[in-house]
Write a structure and sequence with these properties.
single chain; Rossmann fold; binds nicotinamide-adenine-dinucleotide
Length: 273
């Protein structure tokens, strides 16, 4: 469909070795985009690039660390050299750090802010400068449920950082959308990945607690981002900017001003019928 056609566009996608980044890169390529992939796991990013090349698109992998602004500047020079333009940024890679508020060290807090706030900003800035010069472009930042709601369980640093990603998105959208650059933020709830699987293995009750907050009745899968990524990269979303878009199986709607314990019970009863 022409509205979703990404042929001739160049996408930069971070975290492309696995999970949400890989799923994003593959979906964009399926709709026609060429891709410059970033992941500190170069072998993983290269495997995704190979899959994209098999679809007949161009793809290159880079081991750029997205928490290092100097490395990001160098990476975008490589994009200029190899592709000459950037139409879409999937700003996805980034780590948190779990610690109770009373135990979190300032050094670890700085690391998380560097990774998720400064790193995401530097990616936006470098991509945005090029998009502004082109007069068009689209950025999809990945936030989290933790951008808008407290998770507990040691997520203090992650939540502080992800909250900032939302405000960064709104500010960038406000400054750039009149110059052709749209900036949106997707806020996923729990999407299965290796670290989530490890945490669910350590705490056998955790998956059930997650599910009690997800009315759709299952955890997210990396592929769940594919439709949104294509929408935001394409002209189909030409008037969507500054939006915070939940990708959460209904979690945000369900907990909006409610009492999770009560609602969780209701969902379990519903599933039992
Ligand atoms: N999975 C979830 O439940 C969930 C929910 C909300 C938000 N998020 C956020 O979405 C993003 C992706 O999540 P995912 O589930 O795909 O994670 P994942 O762990 O499956 O994949 C992350 C990828 O990013 C790469 N990466 C991490 N830090 C990097 C860095 N500094 N430089 C370069 N590459 C780096 C990793 O090597 C890995 O390939 C993360 O920022 C995460 O916090 C995830």
């Amino acid at each position: 469909m022409k509205l979703f056609d990404l042929r001739g566009k160049v996408a930069v996608v971070s975290g492309a070795a696995q999970g949400l980044g890989r799923a994003t890169a593959l979906a964009l390529a399926e709709c026609g985009a060429d891709a410059m992939l970033v992941d500190r796991n170069l072998a993983g990013a290269e495997a995704t690039a190979e899959q994209i090349r098999e679809m007949g698109r161009r793809a290159t992998a880079s081991a750029c660390d997205v928490s290092d602004p100097d490395a990001i500047v160098a990476f975008f020079r490589q994009v200029d050299h190899e592709y000459g333009r950037v139409d879409f940024l999937g700003n996805i890679a980034g780590d948190g750090h779990l610690a109770r508020p009373e135990d979190l060290t300032v050094a670890d807090l700085h690391k998380v802010l560097q990774n998720l706030v400064v790193g995401r900003f530097s990616m936006c800035q470098e991509a945005g400068r090029r998009m502004l010069a082109q007069g068009r472009g689209s950025i999809m930042n990945i936030g989290s449920l933790a951008s808008t709601t407290a998770l507990g369980r040691g997520h203090i640093a992650y939540s502080m950082a992800m909250g900032a990603v939302i405000q960064m998105t709104r500010e960038l959208s406000t400054e750039w959308s009149c110059r052709g650059v749209r900036v949106n933020c997707v806020t996923p709830a729990q999407v299965v990945n290796p670290s989530l699987e490890a945490r669910m293995k350590d705490d056998p009750g955790l998956e059930g607690r997650f599910l009690s907050g997800i009315p759709i009745g299952r955890l997210g899968r990396p592929e769940d981002i594919q439709g949104l990524a294509v929408l935001l990269a394409s002209d189909a979303s030409a008037w969507i900017t500054g939006a915070i878009i939940p990708m959460d199986g209904g979690n945000t709607a369900m907990n909006a001003g409610g009492t999770p314990g009560h609602q969780g019970t209701a969902v379990q009863q519903f599933r039992g019928t």
